[in-house]
Automatic annotation (TrEMBL):
Organism of origin: Thalassobacillus hwangdonensis
Chief location category: cytoplasm
Taxonomic lineage from the root: Bacteria, Bacillati, Bacillota, Bacilli, Bacillales
Protein name listed in UniProt: Pantothenate synthetase
Miscellaneous comment: The reaction proceeds by a bi uni uni bi ping pong mechanism.
Binding-site positions, beta-alanine: Q61
């Protein structure tokens, strides 16, 4: 595994790989790798000749009330995970290298960003598409891998690739779950013993909502039933429940096509998100 720290060197190598006809699987992350990231690396390794993993805590994704300096980091652990999954190139740039000065051009996400988690994180997805535009140009991937646990991010990346004609295939990877259905997350360690027992009901509520939707329930009925399911079985405080088209993330009077049923629930020390895709 080769570790690369400068954008210029990463672009030089990826250009040579691309010219030689190699397929490049790219997994962009902010580090502190967990099992969900490992599934992305497994998929990239299986489908491509070369695997590039980037680790970059992107300051543009953090709002004024979000502490960039407190974001968890474990460089030694991340390198071990990369080696375990036979990553060919680990791109590990510093912020000064990625953003050497004030930008003359800014990207703004006009759609798909003002619902779900994006509603309370103004500007977050602007930072996501900005850094991904740079990373796609530096790493020249054939395919890029994102987890469906953050399905809104997948939808925004889909729009970025489509709108700007990036020659890369987006590969969404299913959410990694515990045996009881709880979506794996680094935040799960902050749950109390009782909260950990209650948390799997979040996913069960979504499955219940999916069943109702497939039986012909309206959008309002599905949302109401999911809300009641969570409130009756957990002490969590619901942030949102949304039933939207996917990947457009629009409200439809009558659910049709591919839909996403998503929720976020606050527990005492953790905010858990989950979603399920439904083909209507």
């Amino acid at each position: 595994m080769e570790i690369i720290e400068t954008p210029k060197e990463m672009q030089r190598i990826s250009t040579l790989l691309q010219a030689s006809g190699k397929t490049i699987g790219f997994v962009p992350t902010m580090g502190y790798l967990h099992e969900g990231h490992e599934k992305l690396l497994e998929a990239a390794r299986k489908e491509n000749e070369i695997v590039v993993l980037s680790i970059f805590v992107n300051p543009l994704q953090f709002g004024p009330n979000e502490d960039l300096d407190r974001y968890p980091r474990d460089e030694a652990h991340d390198r071990k995970v990369a080696l375990k999954h036979k990553v060919d190139y680990l791109f590990f740039p510093h912020a000064e290298a990625m953003y050497p000065g004030p930008s003359s051009i800014e990207l703004t996400v006009k759609r798909r960003a003002d619902v779900l988690c994006g509603r309370s994180r103004q500007g977050h997805f602007d930072g996501v598409v900005t850094v991904l535009s740079k990373l796609f140009n530096l790493c020249r991937p054939s395919k890029t891998y994102f987890g469906l646990k953050d399905a809104q991010q997948v939808a925004v990346v889909d729009a970025l690739i489509e709108d700007f004609n990036f020659p890369v295939e987006l590969v969404p990877v299913p959410t990694v779950r515990e045996a009881d259905g709880l979506a794996k997350s680094s935040r799960n360690v902050y749950l109390s013993e009782q909260e950990r027992k209650e948390a799997p009901f979040i996913y069960q509520s979504l499955l219940h909502g999916k069943e109702l939707a497939l039986q012909g329930a309206s959008r309002e009925q599905v949302v109401s039933e999911v809300q009641a399911f969570i409130e009756e079985r957990t002490h969590g405080r619901i942030d949102y429940i949304e039933f939207l088209s996917y990947p457009d993330l629009q409200q439809l009077d009558k659910p049709k096509g591919q839909m996403i049923l998503a929720t976020a629930v606050f527990f005492e020390k953790a905010r858990l998100i989950d979603n399920i895709l439904i083909d209507m």
